Amino acid sequence: IPLIKDFQRLEALEKTESLLEVLLKRRSRRSYNKRELSLEEISYLVFATQGVTLKRGEILFKTAPSAGALYPVETYLIVNYSKDLESGLYHLDLKSWHLIYLASVGT
Questions:
Q1: HEC readout, 67-84
Q2: DSSP 8-state symbol, 37
Q3: Running DSSP on this structure, what letter comes out for residue 58?
Q4: How far from 8 is each of 40, 56, 59, 62, CA to CA, in Å?
Q5: What's the DSSP call for residue 64?
Q6: CA-angle at 97, arms to 40 and 18, nearest 5°
Q7: CB within 8 A of 58, min separation 6: which ones?
Q8: pTM of the full predicted structure?
Q9: What is the enclosing helix (H) or strand (E) of 88?
Q10: How far apart are CA 87 and CA 79, in angstroms?
Q11: Tens digits of residue pLDDT in 24-73
């Protein structure tokens, strides 16, 4: 499933707080609502955590830091509520910027 690469619509939303204000208010939660996410929203979240910002030959630089640009992390998503994706387990293929469907999961 190809992910979206253009986030202008989401970034154009009115920003009412500075990054510092958002970070100071940030808290972990264990209660989640069941609002369905769109493919665009999922793409944006994936980019924010593992997006490629620069390619130098075979070396990929990402939005997340990594010593020596080694990035010893594989990204998997469990999708339960999406308008555009089937519920299930997905793997992020960074080079193609696709989510690969792996298996169904119980919701």
A1: HHHCCCCCCEEEECCECC
A2: B
A3: T
A4: 11, 25, 26, 19
A5: S
A6: 50
A7: none
A8: 0.69
A9: strand 88-93
A10: 5
A11: 888 887 777 788 999 999 999 998 888 888 888 888 888 888 887 777 88
Q: At 86, list the tokens.
A: 């089937």
With b for 16 or more beta-carbon neighbours within 10 A and e for fewer, the 66-92 pattern comes to eeeeebeeeeebebeebeebeebebeb
pLDDT tens digits, one per residue of 90-103:
999 988 899 999 99
Name, in order, each residue with C-beta under 8 angstroms of 10's C-beta and a sequence gap of 6 or more: 40, 41, 44
Q: Which residues contact 21 (CB under 8 A, 6 or more apart)?
A: none
Q: Which two tokens stand for residue 21?
A: 């204000």
CA atoms of 13 and 33, how far apart (whole Å): 22
The set of residues, in sequence order, having a beta carbon less than 8 Å from that of 84 and lying 6+ positions away, is 38, 39, 42
The answer to whether 43 and 52 are in contact (CB under 8 A) is no
Can you read off the two tokens belonging to residue 100?
A: 């690969």
